[in-house]
Design goal:
CATH superfamily: Alpha-ketoglutarate-dependent dioxygenase AlkB-like
Radius of gyration: 18 Å
EC number: 1.14.11.33, 1.14.11.54
Enzyme class: oxidoreductase
Protein name: Alpha-ketoglutarate-dependent dioxygenase alkB homolog 3
Largest sheet: 8 strands, mixed
Strand order of the largest sheet: 1-3-4-15-12-17-10-7
Number of strands: 17
Cofactor: Fe(2+)
Subcellular location: Cytoplasm; Nucleus
Number of helices: 4
CATH architecture: Sandwich
Shape: globular
Number of domains: 1
Amino acid sequence: MSQDKRRRTRVQGGWAVTEKAKRSDADKTKVPPAPAWLAKTVDVPQQTTRQKFVYEETTEELEHVEKERLLDKAGVYDLSLGPSGVSRVKLFPNFLEKAECDAMFETLYDNLPWRQKSDVINGVKYLQPRMTLWLGPLPYSYSGVTHEANNDWPPVIQRLKDHLEESTGLCFNSVLANLYHNGHDHLPWHSDNEKGMGQNPTIASVSLGDSRMFELRKKPPVEQPDDFSNTPRVKIPLDAGTLLIMEGTIQDDWQHRVPKEYHDRGPRINLTFRVIHRE
């Protein structure tokens, strides 16, 4: 994205206010109130919550409905129920308003110290097809990559974290930011099941910039661990401002990815908030 284009498209919103010029109300994000369905949580002892919520709506159960399903409406979706528990996603397509998304995207795209790391797959090192930034009190390692502890939280991400925690009742201490420059940048199939994440971690993902498809597939039976041909799959379009929460046993029972796309896609930033524990 050229400097001229960024200047033309820049939106001066609450997320873009500098510390010196910040008004007394700058920390308050102008967003719609959180919907009632956000209150439903899986009983996971490892995930700290600020308060208990009462949920009165019906959850849609997707397992055994069809092999592939598109989710594009706000709601709570139970993807599967197994011996280890419920795998659940919560989708809120309008968590942030467009003006706030535009301002936040421009600030993060221009100012974060993005880095391209290397994955190790089957003993071979590959450059990750995206750029990343880690923020958190502890290191985070996966697929041969290690992000060192980094407590230098940009104010814009700290404000988003505060708003996210206030809206959901959850608490997070870390975030992995991903920058996808175009449709060829992608995230391969994986589960966020590293030991430092704890058992049944809750991950909250906020999307900025261009839209991308997010896909999940259920892990096959243990006797056929590499055969995904008949496993259920779910597709979720993630537009700017969308909040997606994964919770319960979803990291044990499902994998997810952001696939390559072969038509024009602009840059996208994804912020995945989580809790990291000392191993």
